[in-house]
Design goal:
mainly beta; Jelly Rolls; 2 domains; seven-stranded antiparallel β-sheet; 1 helix; globular; Pirin_N_dom
Length: 235
């Protein structure tokens, strides 16, 4: 049976420009029973107001993934890199031995909503690096699409310096996908929008679920319109 992390139980940070929900302890929100799941350390659902964003701040020795759900997010770093991440795009930042960066809503007329994901790397003090890729809607439709994985996993997956596989699926109502994790690995499921069922357990936007040992699991689009889900398979 999955261990549920309901959306309403998440931590909450609210400012005049940011509405952030924390599945795990983050910043001033600390919950001893919720400090991560295996190598997955941060899973925030952030909504940033138009024309606003995170000022320059420092990261080190973390694989940071940004999955944009609505709008566009601009970023800039201390090495001179910059760009925009749009809905349906994933960015991987390997913070390595340390990098300073900022993130801002790229639009002045609508919010940007995205998932911020931190995964512990399997090597520390690497040179910082970025990678970014757009995933076509068709690639996620009624199937699990591999977004990020260790180098050599194949396909369009971004290379991670971590023993983790990250998938996304957009499931229409009644559409089902089955996943069989490798032996000994754990799975975290996060609903990004809409509704899905996990082996018959109903989950809606913001809900998470952990499975520490599962031979296989089935995700099914629920409600009238189905839902979008991310699946993390972790050592």
């Amino acid at each position: 049976m999955p261990t549920l992390r309901p959306a309403a139980a998440r931590g909450h940070t609210r400012t005049d420009w940011l509405d952030s929900r924390h599945s795990f302890s983050f910043g001033r929100y600390y919950e001893p029973a919720q400090t991560g799941f295996r190598a997955l350390r941060v899973l925030n659902e952030d909504v940033v107001a138009p024309g606003s964003g995170f000022p320059p701040h420092h990261h080190a020795n973390m694989e940071i993934l940004t999955w944009v759900l609505e709008g566009a997010l601009a970023h800039r770093d201390s090495a001179g890199g910059s760009g925009v991440i749009r809905a349906g795009e994933l960015q991987r930042m390997s913070a390595g031995h340390g990098i300073e960066h900022s993130e801002y809503n790229a639009a002045d007329d609508r919010p940007v909503r995205f998932l911020q994901i931190w995964i512990q790397p399997n090597r520390v003090n690497l040179a910082p690096s970025y990678a970014q890729r757009a995933f076509a809607a068709q690639a996620l439709r009624d199937r699990l699409c591999l977004l990020a994985a260790p180098a050599g996993a194949g396909g369009d997956a971004l290379a991670l310096h971590a023993d983790a596989h990250v998938y996304a699926a957009r499931l229409g109502a009644g559409a089902a996908v089955r996943h069989r994790p490798a032996p000994g690995r754990g799975v975290w499921v996060q609903v990004a929008r809409g509704e899905v069922t996990l082996d018959g357990t109903r989950l809606t936007q913001g809900d998470g679920a952990a499975l520490d040992a599962a031979d296989a699991l089935t995700l099914t689009g629920g409600g009238a319109d189905g839902g979008e889900v991310l699946l993390f398979e972790l050592a």
